[in-house]
């Protein structure tokens, strides 16, 4: 069964809705790209997981519970929790680390091939 997990990110609302088997189970604030940066829209299948990732592009910044879905773009935890709910990232989708851990474990358990990332304006 495909797409057991769907993480739907609304850039305009700065919210993620997480669905399991079609049922909404979580709604979380996110931070997407700040002005001058881009969070690409589209539908993606999760590509790989990295539990304790650090950015090779942005000063070794911590990216805990990373779910990479398109090249260097990932959903991951952030230490800038106060900025969630408004654009702040270089393009990734930032989550509260506790929420990122929940989503990471769901993707790990259900399988990357069953985890879909949908990003809309």
For the structure shown, list the relevant keywords.
121 residues, peptidoglycan synthesis, L,D-transpeptidase catalytic domain-like, globular, 12% helix, 44% strand
Quote the distance from N terminus to C terminus.
Answer: 27 Å
Q: Class, according to the CATH hierarchy? A: Mainly Beta
Major sheet: order of its strands?
3-2-1-9-4
Strand content: 35-45%
Q: Label the overall shape.
A: globular
Provide the gyration radius in Å: 13 Å
| Tally of strands | 9
Which structural class best describes the helix and strand composition? mainly beta
pLDDT averaged over residues: 96
Please provide the ordered H/E string of secondary-structure elements. Answer: EEEEEEEEHE
Describe this structure in words.
With 121 residues, the chain is mainly beta. The protein has one domain (5-120): L,D-transpeptidase catalytic domain-like, CATH 2.40.440. The protein contains one helix and nine strands. The protein has one helix spanning 97-110, and strands at residues 5-10, 15-20, 23-29, 42-45, 48-54, 62-70, 73-77, 93-95, 115-120. A five-stranded mixed β-sheet has the order 3-2-1-9-4, covered by helices on one side. Strand 5 and strand 6 form a beta hairpin. It is globular. The chain starts with a strand and ends with a strand. The model has no long low-confidence stretch (mean pLDDT 96).
């Amino acid at each position: 069964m495909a797409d057991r997990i769907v993480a739907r990110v609304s850039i305009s609302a700065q919210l993620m809705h997480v669905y399991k088997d079609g049922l909404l189970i979580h709604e979380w604030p996110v931070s997407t790209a700040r002005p001058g940066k881009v969070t690409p829209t589209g539908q993606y299948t999760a590509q790989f997981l990295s539990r304790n990732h650090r950015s090779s592009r942005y000063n070794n910044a911590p990216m805990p519970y990373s779910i990479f879905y398109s090249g260097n773009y990932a959903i991951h935890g952030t230490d800038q929790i106060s900025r969630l709910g408004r654009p702040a990232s270089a393009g990734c989708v930032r989550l509260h680390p506790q929420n990122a851990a929940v989503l990471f474990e769901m993707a790990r358990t259900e399988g990357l091939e069953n985890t879909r990332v949908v990003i809309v304006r």
